């Protein structure tokens, strides 16, 4: 059957079904299972990890981080540096996703405060409006004599930076504003949006080099044990609300997996918040119980009887929410784990903290973790649902979401509004990779660009009843020409002939 005939028959059907067709929204009818596929593209990036990233249109802009360096050394010969100063990235990269072209520009012409703020790694950052805000970060002095964590927040005009670099011009000083921010003096922390505010969580103030080399100050690592809420309408440097974790159970964490979440609010309904899935360190091991916080709560909450076994260390991740099911779903795309999975649902603790290539999902329904009792019925294990594997164990790189996906104001992907077709979830640029899942494998800084695809539900099943049939066809025709995201199977912004062809392909296959 030709596409022309198919399209004409579909348009004829629209006279029968019309626009009166409505989407199924009842929780019992929703089929929202998720599956993932990972693809390494033919394009290359640069060997960069632990960077701070913003987006301006099709341009993805990278600051800070470490270049060409594998995982830092912990035990090494005398005179070795864990964080050699030459490994700190001093280049701004712009990757144009529309042309698959990489541009770059230096920072040596900028003022000392700006260069100091941009020569760091593991800096927490947040994009809001047209600006990127980078807090703290750990890096060398400008004369390379020592290392510390910055006590600043840097506001960056992304459009100004991208325009200059793509035109091979020096990035203007006016694109950067550096302010003192004592609460922002952390590295390894993360920031989560709370609607029109953001929350800076955890991290530590790290000074010196990890290996205590002669001639340098002994290293110090002081956890902040804090979270700070910033309101950009008030100040991006001074928080409007802060919390100190006096017990050190919830927020003695850095290099963590943390994702936005939609959680039950104290006054009823739901509100934005976050979930921490792991992080380091609990003594010398990763934390293995998650933490939750909802905006308005007096403190982050945790339950030491609930255990997470896999992917506790900072790695690619995504957060989904279904309002119909009141479910948060967190996807963790490999990393470093406290346990080894035997492939049959069993876990073995490993004090060497092995790298993992597994993709896992954790779920909360109604704000309650989905768990299973352990063998002795003493603790409850969060269900680390293994749903796939990465080509290599990966960490220290963010999953940059596809901007065409339906998201809420906290950047959670809205499951109820996702099309039932394989679509691009997001991209990974560079990052740390391990050669294999193992206790202490060789690691390297990757220059790969990887794409992660997600499928929600049964492909073509736009009414979410588990099958593809005439009802789905009628539903799609009912939304013909609209921007309905569920029926927009190719995510081009409008329901049309290509979506019809996609649905029919699923139906007949």
Descriptive notes:
The protein is mainly beta. Helix content is 10%, strand content 38%. Strands 27, 28, 31, 32, 35 and 38 form a six-stranded mixed beta sheet that branches. Strand 24 (291-294) and strand 25 (301-302) form a beta hairpin. Helix 1 (3-17) packs across helix 4 (470-478). It is globular, with a radius of gyration of 24 Å.
Strand content: 35-45%
Number of helices: 5
Beta strands, count: 42
Cα Rg = 24 Å
Largest sheet: 6 strands, mixed
Low-confidence stretches: 1-29
Shape: globular
Average predicted confidence as pLDDT = 90
- What is the helix content? 10-25%
Number of domains: 2
At CATH level 2, the architecture of the largest domain is: 6 Propeller
Q: Which structural class fits the helix and strand makeup?
A: mainly beta
CATH class of the largest domain: Mainly Beta
Predict the CATH topology of the largest domain: Neuraminidase
Terminal CA distance: 14 Å
* CATH level-4 homologous superfamily of the largest domain: Kelch-type beta propeller
């Amino acid at each position: 059957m030709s596409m022309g005939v198919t399209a004409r028959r579909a348009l004829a059907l629209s006279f029968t079904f019309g626009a009166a067709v409505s989407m199924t929204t009842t929780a019992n009818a929703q089929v929202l299972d998720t599956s993932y596929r990972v693809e390494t593209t033919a394009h290359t990036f640069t060997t960069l990890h632990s960077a701070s990233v913003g987006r301006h249109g099709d341009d993805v802009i990278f600051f800070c981080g470490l270049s060409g360096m594998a995982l830092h050394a912990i035990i090494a010969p005398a005179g070795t540096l864990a964080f050699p100063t030459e490994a700190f990235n001093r280049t701004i990269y712009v990757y144009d996703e529309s042309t698959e072209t990489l541009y770059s520009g230096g920072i040596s012409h900028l003022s000392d405060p700006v260069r100091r703020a941009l020569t760091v790694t593991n800096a927490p950052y947040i994009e809001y409006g047209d600006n990127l805000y980078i807090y703290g970060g750990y890096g060398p002095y400008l004369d390379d004599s020592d290392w510390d964590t910055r006590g600043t927040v840097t506001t960056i005009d992304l459009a100004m930076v991208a325009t200059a670099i793509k035109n091979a011009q020096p990035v203007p000083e006016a694109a950067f504003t550096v302010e003192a921010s004592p609460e922002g003096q952390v590295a390894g922390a993360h920031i989560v949006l709370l609607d029109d505010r953001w929350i800076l969580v955890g991290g530590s103030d790290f000074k010196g080099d990890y290996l205590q080399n002669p001639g340098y100050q002994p290293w110090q690592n002081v956890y902040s044990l804090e979270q700070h809420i910033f309101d950009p309408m008030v100040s991006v440097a001074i928080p409007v609300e802060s919390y100190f974790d006096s017990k050190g159970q919830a927020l003695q964490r850095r290099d963590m997996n943390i994702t936005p979440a939609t959680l039950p609010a104290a006054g009823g309904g739901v509100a934005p918040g976050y979930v921490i899935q792991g992080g380091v360190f609990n003594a010398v091991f990763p934390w293995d119980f998650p933490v939750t916080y909802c905006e308005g709560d007096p403190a982050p909450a945790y339950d030491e009887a609930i255990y997470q076994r896999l992917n506790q260390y900072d790695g690619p991740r995504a957060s989904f929410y279904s309002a119909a099911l009141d479910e948060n779903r967190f996807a963790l795309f490999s990393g470093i784990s406290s346990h080894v999975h035997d492939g049959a649902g069993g876990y073995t603790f490993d004090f060497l903290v092995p790298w993992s290539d597994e993709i896992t999902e954790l779920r909360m329904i109604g704000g309650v973790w989905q768990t299973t009792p352990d063998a002795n019925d003493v603790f409850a294990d969060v269900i680390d649902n293994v749903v796939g594997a990465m080509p290599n164990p990966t960490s220290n790189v963010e999953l940059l979401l596809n901007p065409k996906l339906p998201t809420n104001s906290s950047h959670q992907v809205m499951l109820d509004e996702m099309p039932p077709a394989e679509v691009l979830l997001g991209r990974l640029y560079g990052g740390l990779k391990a050669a294999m899942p193992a206790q202490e494998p060789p690691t390297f800084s990757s220059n790969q660009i990887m794409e992660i695809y997600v499928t929600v539900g049964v492909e073509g099943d736009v009414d979410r009843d588990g099958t593809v049939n005439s009802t789905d066809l009628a539903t799609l025709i009912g939304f013909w020409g609209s921007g309905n995201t569920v029926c927009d199977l190719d995510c081009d912004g409008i329901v049309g002939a290509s979506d019809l062809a996609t649905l029919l392909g699923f139906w007949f296959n």
